[in-house]
Amino acid sequence: MEPSILFMDHDQIQRQSNVSRIIVETHAIRSVSIESLQALIFIVFDYLNDGKNHRAWPLIGSLTRTITYLQLTSEPSSASQSSLLMRPVRLIQPSNDWTELEERRRLFWIIFMLDRFCSVTTGWDTSLTSDDVHRRLPADGGYFTREEPVITPFFGIWNKAVARIGRSLANVPAPYSEEDPTFEQLQGASPNSANGFIDASKLGAFAYCVEATESLSQVTTFFLQQRINAQDKEHAVSWLTRFKELDLRLVQWKLFLPHRWKDSNISEDRTVVNMDPNLTLAHITHNTSMILLHHPIAFPAKSWNDYVALPKECSAQTCELAAIETSNIVSKFLTYSPIPFVNVQFAFCAFVAAKALLFDNRGPPRPEFGRLVRDLWEMSKRWDQNMNDTNSRPVNQAGIYAQHLERLQDACSQDPQYQFDFYDHTCQSLEPQQYVSPLNVMTPLLRSGSFAQEQPTRGHVRRQSRLVKHPRSTMHNNK
């Protein structure tokens, strides 16, 4: 909002915005409707970009429950509800209009991505599970804009029990299915035994962004948060097998992307840069998945015993290349995109890439590290473009990430042996936390292998005495 248009100064605009936000938030929480979901999504994105995560988290939890009440987690004709004796109360009228159904579908997937992002950044469990989600992926934005009805495949969500370490990922649902994968499993079919060709040609950038975000959540949930006893050879082998399975799936996702979506620059004219925001986010989210998956292999916990050789150098190179590619994509997008701001997941991917370039502290960081920090400050500046004080740095989530990276770099330059907790994304402290990921724990007594008498408190982090407090906050979806 421009002060000259509203005849209000910046402080008055800020006060009025806060009052309006409170009114909208209060009314949206007290009602269960499509409109209230849309309003809360705007407020959540605003809180997340402002760095007020503690205000966004409860709203995300509310959103995930509300879409369940509105039955937006399933397709209207989903087979999973066809045999129910008692059906849920219907709060919104059914619709036969494809455009309206697609609008509801896209609304669900936005909330789904918020749920996954919240889980990835905090380490909390996801709220929307395979028991809840029976949804087709969103169609390409062109069909949605033209109101042209098309059919997209169902998206398979992994069951946490089926995907535990020690169990093969061959038993998890296939990414695409023509029918509700839950119903197929109830009928006794193998989740990966879909016959015939699955038509994914109607998918667009938003659908691939959903897929990439779910892959990031899978790396966090089914690898980083899985408990492991590094002194148990069988358990260590199972953990490494899970790494290889996830790595193969990530490589295949990138390899089998349709030609149109392989590059975030979707312009048919190579001399023109036209970067789709959803596709760009999909690519850097995929790179973030690669970094988080390979990092514990490249830099294993000190408690890791050499029962199984780890491809450390290969994984370290994978982390570096993914971080460099992220830096290139982010800089290119900020340079050529007319969009005035990016969402918080975009900033998070840049933050993880920068940490990956800084972690192996054996000399000056690569130039891409400094570029990522500058790009984060640019994201921060764009979000707070109407600030009064042009000399002060804006303090929002992108700015918090950038400021924390600068402090980490300063700590690394003062102590060449310093290594930070790579999996702590809170930016609250320079001191490593009391855990490592993956977790080192005793395996059950029924398992084979020996147990260590002592469990190290952490592996690839080093204690530092100095603390840094959290900076104080100042209180697209077409493809």
Protein described:
- It is a single chain.
- The chain is mainly α and 479 residues long.
- The protein has a domain at 204-479.
- The protein contains 14 helices and four strands.
- It has a two-stranded antiparallel sheet. Strands 3-4 form a two-stranded parallel sheet.
- It is globular and about 60 Å long.
- The chain starts with a helix and ends in a 39-residue tail after the last strand.
- Residues 451-479 are annotated as: Disordered.
- Its main location: nucleus.
Strand order of the largest sheet: 1-2
Shape: globular
Radius of gyration: 23 Å
Low-confidence regions: 183-196, 433-475
Attribute tags:
479 residues, mainly alpha, two-stranded antiparallel sheet, 14 helices, 4 strands
Quick summary:
The chain is an all-alpha fold and 479 residues long.
Present the secondary structure layout.
Blueprint: H1 3-6, H2 10-29, H3 34-50, H4 53-69, H5 98-122, H6 141-146, E1 154-155, E2 176-177, H7 181-186, H8 205-224, E3 227-228, H9 233-255, H10 277-298, H11 312-336, H12 344-359, H13 367-383, H14 397-414, E4 439-440
Parallel strand pairs: 3-4
Antiparallel strand pairs: 1-2
